[in-house]
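Quick board copy: two proteins, each given as sequence then tokens.
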Amino acid sequence: MKRAVIACGRPGYRWVVLKGLVVDYVGVLTDADADQLYAFLRAARERGIKTALLSNAPGASDEAKQALDPFFDALVFSGEVGVAKPEREVYLLTAGLLDLPADRCVFVDDAAHNVRAAVAAGMAGVHHTSVEETLTELSALFAGDR
């Protein structure tokens, strides 16, 4: 079994209460067991965690955005904002849309280089390898918030 990797920033990283969850779409929310991730997102929002979708897609239809709306406070599509993963600015922009500093956010992606870039921008990172592992990692990171 592959193990998800949590990266919590640079040496000397200070522990902060995480209040934001930023998730990629393709490769994460398209997995067969993604319904469990959607349930986690809904529950996180109910507990006051701010959530964002961050996708390198050019955009999405109004219908797709409406379907995602119950799970996210912000939807960020690279084609709409003009900056893409793994550029630092897209992580900072997304955190800003949640009214949070980057170091209060966790980023989840199936591409390790995108996770490393988010960590370099100040976020905690989870490299998604399976729904089960990602949920285990997210539950640990947000455990103090229940």
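And the next:
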Amino acid sequence: MAVVISGTGLFTPPESISNDELVACFNAYVDQFNQDNEQAIANGDVAPLSHSSSAFIEKASGIKSRYVMSKEDILNVDVMRPTFVERANESISLQAEIGVAAAKQALKAANKTPPILTLLLLLALILSALILPWRLKYNKRLVVLVGV
């Protein structure tokens, strides 16, 4: 039996943050930090932070923008990191939601029906149940790729 890749799917988060947006937030944080620590900086106890620039980020990393699930808290000077709403144990996880969205695209591209996806998910669950005790014992990650 030949195994082929008959369709692929890709999940892209819904929002994008440009270097300009990221730098504006970071530089506002720098200004706030330097103002809050003005006396300690003057005494030499704390080093002042310096502003950044979009050009520096692009030169250092090659990145012009990045996709994120939600940019609100990332661009909030008081948070500056992604935050996620905690989900109930009975709910699908964010990672699973992303995987399902990509799998649906792959199925559509391959002109396949969802029962194949159900079979793959069931197989993944069975493999996870078999591998979990090994992962707990040896604290290792194991990736299993299954093709249909």
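Board note added afterward: The two ends are 10 Å apart (CA to CA).
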